Amino acid sequence: MKSRGWQYAGKQGGFKLEQPEGYSYLYFPLVNEAGMMSSITPNLHGQITSGHNRFLTEPVSAEALHNSKAARNFWIYTEKEGAWSVSGNSARQNAQQFAEGREYSQVEAGFLWHRVTRKHGMLPLTAETTNFVPVTEDQVELMKVKLTNTGDTPIRFTATTAIPLYGRSADDLRDHRHVTSLLHRIYTTTYGVEVQPSLSFDERGHRVNKVTYSVLGAEDHGKRPSGFFPVTEDFVGEGGALDWPEAVVLNRKAQAGPDVRFEGYEAVGGLRFEEVELAAGESKSYIIAMLITGERISDEEYAAKYLSEASFDNLLAQNERYWREKLDTIIFHSGDEEQDLWMKWVTLQPVLRRLYGNSFLPYHDYGRGGRGWRDLWQDCLALMVMEPAEVRYLLLNNYAGVRIDGSNATIIGARPGEFIADRNNIPRVWMDHGAWPLLTTMLYIHQSGDLDFLLQSQTYFRDSFIERSKGRDTSWLPEQGNQLLTCEGDIYEGTILEHILLQNLVPFFNVGEHNNIKLEGADWNDGLDLAPNRGESVAFTAFYASNLIELSDLLLQLKHRSGINTIKLGQEIARLLDSLSHPVSYDSTTSKLALLDSYYQSIVPAVSGKLVVLSIEDVVQDLKHKAEWMITHLRRNEWVTSQEGYEWFNGYYNNDGQRVEGDCPEGVRMTLTGQVFTIMGGVATDEQVDKIHAAVERYLKDEHIGYRLNSRFGGIQQNLGRAFGFAFGHKENGAMFSHMTVMYANALYKRGYVQEGYQVLDSIYRLSSDFSVSKMYPGVPEYINERGRGMYTYLTGSASWLLLTQLTEVYGVKGYYGDLLLEPKLIRTQFDAEGTASVETLFAGRMLEVVYHNPRQIDYGQYRIGAVKINGQQADLKMNGMGCLISRELLDVPEQGNLVIEVLLERIP
C-alpha cells in the first residue's frame, strides 16, 4: 500500500515519506563545495562523482535507478533469516514489493542529508541509514548504519558493506567497459578497499592516472573491518548478483585481509565486519566513507577524520548548520506555511545549479559538467540575493566570453571566466544569448548601485569562428590564445558597457526576411534548432527591443548619477550606432544585413584598437530609435487572430519562412514564449495583455498539468526544431515547462496583472507539491509531463526566476540603483490570520526583515503603503507609485541582527 505522500517534519523544511520504494525515479542531491556530487534514492541507489571523468560509482540515468542492481548496499546475515539489506535492495526484498505485509520503510531528508529507516520483516531489528556529504575540503560521502534490536532477546549477525567501485570516466560505461577494468589496481588497506586505475581512458588521451576511489569503514568506535571482498566476481559468486551475492547469502569467509593487491577486475568496496551479538534494546553503528582523492591515501588519516560515530554526528550537525545559514538568506512568511517551506527547497535549487551545473543527477545524464552561457547569467539572478559577495567578480569574468561579432563562447570552463574554443568543431549560436547579460547586470546595479561596473574593462573571447559562427578565420591559430587582439598584436579590452551594447546591437541588424531577428541555432528553447536559414524569433526580438529601451534609460542614469556625458567605444562597434554617422533604413532587411556584413569585415582578423568618444545623449537617441522601430514593427506585423476571435503575438517563423502561430489545419498553434517577452518588455499594450491572457487561458492552460509551453502543432516540424519530435506533453513540446511559466507569471506581475500572475505561480506550486501526481520531492521541476509527473528535478533555471519573482514582484522587495524599493503585490490570501506577510533577505550587505501589516485584510489593488518604521522608528519616505523608496543610507544603522522594516498597508481612499 502506498503512502499519502511526503509530509514536512518540523519548521526547517525537512520531510518524511513512508514506503518510498513504492515510487520510481525519486532521488535526492548530496553535494559540497569541494566538488563531491552525489545522488541517492530510497534504496541507496544513485551515483557518486566529482566530474565527468571521475565516477566512484557507476554513472546512472533515471531508468537505472530501478533497473540496476548496483547501489550503496549494507547487508546483515543471521543464521535464522539469512541475508537482509538495510535499504531493501536484495532480490528477496524486491520480490516482496507488491506483496501484502511488506517491510516498513521511511525516507527522511533535510538540508542536505538523507536517512532511510527500515524494519526487518521477520526479526525485531530496525536499521537507520544516514548519508550526507560533509562541508570539508575532501570529496567524500559519509554513511552511518545504525542497527537497533527492538526485541527482548539478543540477535547475532554479521555485517557486510558492498559498494561497487566503478572508478573511471562516464565515457567508459559502454566504450570499453571491460577493457578499462583491466586498468584497475585494487588494494586492501587497514580500513577498506582502494581502486587506482593505472591509466585514464578519455578524450584527453591515455594518461597515467593518480585518482583513487576508496570505500573505508569502521564500527562505531573506530574498530576496523575483519576482512574484505575487493573483486566483484568473487563477491557475487558464479551465478550470483549484487542484489543476491554469494559472499553474503552463504556467509562466506572474507576473501582478503589488509595489504593485498588485485589487478584487472571490476571492484567492489566489500567490507566484512566481525560477528556481533546485539542485546535487547541495544544499538550498534557502522560508519562508511566513500572517497575520491588525487592519489592513494593514508587510510589511518581518513579513519581518524571520519570513521567514528562521534565524528559522523559532529560533521552532520556542521552540515545542517552550513545549509541552514545559506538558505536563511531568504525566508518567506505568508498565510501558507507549507508553501513557505516549499520555497526553501526552491531557494536551494540555484545553489545546486552552481555546484552541479547541468549534469550529474539521474535525469541530467547529459553533458560533461559545467554550465552553458545562459546558465551563467540566469543562475546569478538568485545568487545575487543569496551569495552576493562574489557576484561582481562572476559578472565581470562572464563578460570575457563575449565575441566581437556579438556571439559568445559556448564551452564554459570550470573556473569563473574560463572559456574554451570549440574542441569538436561544431559551431552553434543561440540567438537569445546576447539578451540575458543585461538583465542580470541590471539586477546587480539595482541591488548595489554600482554604476561604475559599466566602465570596467574586459577582454573579448576569440577563436576561429566568425560572423556568428557562419564562417571560419583560417588565419587564427590556437597558439594565439583565446583573447581578441588588435592589429598591433595587443590584447583588446572594452568596457562592460561596450560588451552589452555590442550584444544587443548586432542582433538588431541580424534579421530574416520578415525583419525579425534570425533564430540561428535556437533561442531560449534549445528544441527550436532546425530553422537556421529562414527561421526568426519574434519572441526574442521583443526581448532585445526592451533591452534597447533599458539600455537607453541606464545610460541616462549613468549621466545623471555619475556626471558622465560621454562614453568610449571601439571604432568598429560605433558603426552599429548607424544614426550617428550613416543611417540605414530599418524597414529594409537588405540594408540592415549589408551594414552587419560590413561590420563583420572590419573586425577580422583583428580590430584596430582605436576608440571613439560619443555623447551619451546621442547614443540614447540611437537606441530609442531602434527600440521604437522594433516595437512598432511587432505590434503592426506580428499580432495574430484566430478564427475563434482570440488574439496574441506570433512567436516564430520556421525554416520555410512561414509564420508559425495562428490557425492551421491541425488546429491552433500558439507558444507561451511569444507572449512572455512581449508582455514583460512592454511591447504589448495593456489592451493586448488582456487579449493575450485570454488566449493563453483558452489555448495553453490545461487543468491537469498547468500552462503548456505550446499547443499541439501536429507532426514533427523538421523545419522548426527537434522539440516536436518529442511526444506532445513532454519536455519542450507542450509540457508545463516551469521556466517559461514562471517568466509568464513574472511578466504579468510586472505589468500589474497580479491576480493573473498569482494564479500562474499558484498552479506551479500546486502541481509540484501534489505528490500523488507529481511524485517528486519538494521543489520546482524543469517540467511537468502529460501525466503530471515532475521531471528533471533540482537542476532548473526556473528556480532562480521563481525565487526572484517571489522576492521582487510578489513581496516587492527590490533595488533601485542601490536604494531599496518596496512595492508589494500580495493578494489577500497570502497574508496570515493576523494580516501579516514578511520576507527576510540580504540587501546592502545586511539582513533585512520586511514585514507587511494588513490588519484589515485588504486585497491588492485596494491598498497602498501608509506608515513605514525602520527598527521601530517612523521613517519619512519618498513614495514611488504604489510603493516607497528607502535610501541606502537609512539602512546603514549600527544595530546588530536583522534590520526590521515594518510597513502598514492602508486602504486607497
What does this structure look like?
With 909 residues, the protein is of the alpha+beta class. The chain is built from 22 helices and 52 strands. It has 4 domains: 231 residues, Glycoside hydrolase, family 65, N-terminal domain (Beta-galactosidase, Chain A, domain 5, Distorted Sandwich); 178 residues, Glycosyltransferase, CATH 1.50.10; 236 residues, Glycosyltransferase (Alpha/alpha barrel), CATH 1.50.10; 97 residues, Maltose phosphorylase, domain 3 (Sandwich). 28% of the residues lie in helices and 25% in strands. It is globular and about 90 Å long. The relative contact order is 0.08. It holds the Pfam family GH94_b-supersand. This is Cellobiose phosphorylase.
Name the features.
single chain, 909 residues, alpha+beta, Beta-galactosidase, Chain A, domain 5, Glycosyltransferase, 6-stranded antiparallel beta sheet, 22 helices, globular, GH94_catalytic, glycosyltransferase activity
- Principal-axes geometry comes out as globular
Name of the top-level CATH class of the largest domain: Mainly Alpha
- From the N-terminal CA to the C-terminal CA, the straight-line distance is 57 Å
Q: Tally the helices: what do you get?
A: 22
Q: What level of helicity do the residues show?
A: 25-40%
What is the name of the CATH topology of the largest domain? Glycosyltransferase
Report strand order across the widest sheet.
1-2-9-10-11-12-23-18-15-14-20
Instruction: Provide the gyration radius in Å.
Output: 30 Å
Strand content: 25-35%
Domains counted in the coordinates: how many? 4
By secondary-structure content and strand pairing, the structural class works out as alpha+beta
